[in-house]
Structures are given as structure tokens and as C-alpha cells.
Amino acid sequence: MGRFLRIVNEVEAELRRRDRASSYFTLLRPNYVNDLMRINELHRGGVMLEIGGYPFYFSMCLRRLGVDLTTVDLAPHRAQQLIRDESLRVVTCDIEREPLPFEDHSVATVALCATFEHLRIDPFFSLEQMRRVLQPDGVLYLTTPNLYRLGNVLSFAMGRGLAFDPIREYSKLRTVGHMGHVREYTAGEMCRFLAAAGFGAVKVEKRATPSRHGKLVDAVHRLLPAIRSELVVTGRAPSASSRVFNQLPNGRGREAAHKIIAPITSRPNC
Hints:
The chain is of the alpha/beta class.
């Protein structure tokens, strides 16, 4: 873990040096360390695609990991100076409306961290596109909040709805430039999403980084893993020899893809 912690510390120091210190970065530090460790274990060389880069803090971490990184973002102009300063390779794409601007089977790993919950138009199309550009047996690494996380359970029990305020989340379209949290998902729902989009070997883990609310919350997370705060989801694109790979229409003609995939992956093993 030492190497990954050093990377995160280095990025944090660089942000401070540029007078860009961020409470958001501080909040996500443990996630960044854990994500780097997991991605490093999964990635076996080749092109890595990061989907949803803004504010590009994790892009900075991945770049220092030494991977061949390209980041896709809805509106990269929001951090143009940081992108230039860090020499980040960033491509503009609305992933729910536009095909990813990459050739079929050209990417080894896709990282979709803390982004899926922001998709509000067609997340299924986005997943299909990620599967299309992945090489046979390529890896999708995805993190998203757990619908059954402790904060949601307590907020719902007290009659307040879920822990995120929909008014605040929708207002981010104007204040931040992208949608806030639209929907949080269960582990089973994420399994079904990936399976229906053509991914195999789908696995979901629940994780909780040390809580800012104290050791009691950490103890609850240890005892009750079902209400940990985040889902870590992995899936693999079909191998070149698989029947699904040979029949998939590469993200085009979704109706045909549904007919091919549904009988094979309707009950994902995760």
C-alpha cells in the first residue's frame, strides 16, 4: 500500500503547491489509495480509459501510477489549466448520448469511479460502449455508492428520504456542470446492469473507508458489511472465443444485443 499512499500524498502536495487544496480530495483520499491498489492489480498493461474525470484529481493519481491513460469527460474546459499543467490526455464525450470515440476492442481497462450514480439519461448505453471498446477479457472497474449504506438506512428510518438531497443534486447541473447523484444502486442491481450490457465474471464487493463520524461507525461497518458505504464492481468483456463476443453487435443495435445477451446472463453469478 505504501506506493499508492505516496502517489496520493504527492498529488495532494501538488494541489497545495498550486493553491488548489480541496476538501473533496481530502474526503476521498482513502478511496483513491484503495482504488489505485485494486486497479494496479487488475490492469495488465495497454491503454486505460478513465470515464468521468472532473475534477481530475484521480486522473493525476492514475497518471503517476504509470499507466497509458486517456480520460473521458463531459466538459473538460472546467479544469483546462489543470489539464495543461498535468499534461493529461482528455477527450470530450457525453457518454450517455455519444459513442465513445475509440475503436472496438482497443482498450485494456476502463475505470468508472464515482460516476455511475450521476448518469441520468441512458447508463445502459454507456456500459455497452465501454464493453465495445474493451479488448476481449478486458476489465471494467466501477465504484458507486451502496443504496443500502448506513447513512441512507438511518435517513430513511427517520423519515427524511435518502441521505442525498435531490434538489441539491439537480442544482449541480448549473453550479458544477454535471448532474449530482441521480440514483444509488444495490449490489444485485449493479450485477444485472453489467450482465445485461454483456460483461461476464461480474463481482461486487462492499467497502467502507474510515469514517469521519468516528470509530463506532467503523465498527458497525465491520460487523454489517451489507451497509458499507460503497460498491466496488468488476466485470470482464467477453473473450474472443465466447459465443457472446462473436454475436454482439459492438454496441450498435441495442435491441438485438438484448436478445442475444438476456438468455445467457439473466442470472449473474455475483
